[in-house]
Every structure is written in C-alpha cells, then in structure tokens.
Amino acid sequence: MRKAAWTVTAWAVGIVFVFPVLWMVLTGFKREQDAASNPPAWLFHPTLDQYRQIFGRNVTPYLLNSLMASGFSTLLVLVLATPAAYALSMRPVGKWRDALFFFISTKMLPAVAALLPIYLVVKQLGMLDNIWTMVILYTAMNLPLAVWMMRSFLLEVPRSVVEAAAVDGAGLGLTIRKVIGPIVSPGIAATALICFIFAWNEFFFAVNLTATRSGTAPIFLVGFISSEGLFLARLCAAATLVSLPVLLAGWLAQNKLVRGLSMGAVK
C-alpha cells in the first residue's frame, strides 16, 4: 500500500508539473477566440494557423541566433571550466575555498546592477546588437556554475587513475581528454545541457543589448505582446516552437544526463 501511495503521489506531482506545458502546446493549436475564452475551451477544432503566422514572421533568424549564442557559449564554458575544476579538485591550489567562493559570488550580483556598466562598455566597443557580445556574456554568466558542477564530478574520479596516467607519461591535456573525460562524460553532458538551457532562456541582457540583427528566441516571443493586446494562441505556438531545441537536446542526452546528475549521490 505504501508503494502504491508513493506511485500515485509521484504521478500526481508529475501531472501538476507537466500540465502547464501540455496546456501551452494545446493552446498553440487553438484560434485566438478559443484561447481567450473564459471559461477555457476544452473542446475545440485544432488549427495550424498560428504556426503559419509564426513562420510568416521569419522566426528562423531568432532561432539561429539563440542556437549560435547558446552553443558557442556552452562550448567555451566547458573548455574553461574543465581545467579550472581539475585544478580545484584533483590538484587543489592554495586557498582553493576562497577561489570557489569568488566564482560563486559573481552569481550574487543582480543582473540589473551589472547592466549599465556592461551596456556602456559594449557601446564603446561598438558591439551592440552583436551575437558575439551575447556569447561572451553567456559564457561569463554560466562559467561559475559550471566550475562548481564540474568540480563535484571530478571529485568522483579515483586519484589512482590520474596517477597511473602520469606514470605512463601522459601530460595534463592528454590526461583530461583521454582519461578523465570518458569517466566524467555524464557530468560534462549534464553541465553542458544546463548551461545551454540557461543561455537559451536568457532574456534580460538580450532585450537590452540586441535589436534586429542579433535578437534571440525570447525576444521573438515578446513581439506577440503589443498595444493591440495579447495574442495568446500565437504566443503559445511560438513558445512551443522555441522550446523544441531544448527538449530535443535533453532527449538526446537523457541517459548521460541522469547519470551525470546522480554522480556522487550514492557512495
């Protein structure tokens, strides 16, 4: 009975979390009058008109900008975070606790407090509405979190494996690529996916530092909230479309993601 109760509870919690996403997907197939009806229309004639209008507004550049900013920033984060986490876990430097606190303390600064100096610097460099500006910002934004996550994963690597590689003459780069990398690959996948999601969903800096050339997917969604009103069905259809790349990435990496997020949970 206890097992059955936990099963029912887990399903109920899962439905509560999934229902808003399911409702968003269903609303994307409604007409605007059905989406705005009160009480909500449970029975409706599905239509693809909202998706036709989205593609008619040329959503592709926004998706490509988000993919470029998120992909390149995630790659840079992994390249920088892995050796940093290695130094803080396998070969701790002096005052490594202070270094870890410094990394995480950068996340304590509110984004709005950093916006003005960042905007002034970017303007002076002539990099407003530039996708590479977003790549640099997203890299800086996700790097502290990635260092902490990668350090926790690297702590699970047996020291004997690293020492054996050193005895065989492997340098630092070769050790990270050929020895440590395969062991912590689930952790790397989990870190990469989380950084990708954070970069893909980032809105505050994108709406203030980009315009027409480098607008990302969240900026495209704002276009459906105008002085004419809220186009709810079209907004839900666009949000569903924007969510697909992240869902696809999570589905492709689900095996490594589960293993990565559970590394260190059981001794």
From TrEMBL:
It comes from the Bacteria. The chain crosses the membrane at residues 7-26, 67-88, 100-119, 131-150, 179-200, 231-253. Belongs to the binding-protein-dependent transport system permease family. It comes from Planosporangium thailandense. Signal peptide: none annotated. It is a multi-pass membrane protein. Keywords: Cell membrane, Membrane, Transmembrane, Transmembrane helix, Transport. PROSITE patterns: ABC_TM1. The keyword Nucleus does not apply. The keyword Transport applies. Gene3D superfamilies: MetI-like. This is Carbohydrate ABC transporter permease. It holds the Pfam family BPD_transp_1.
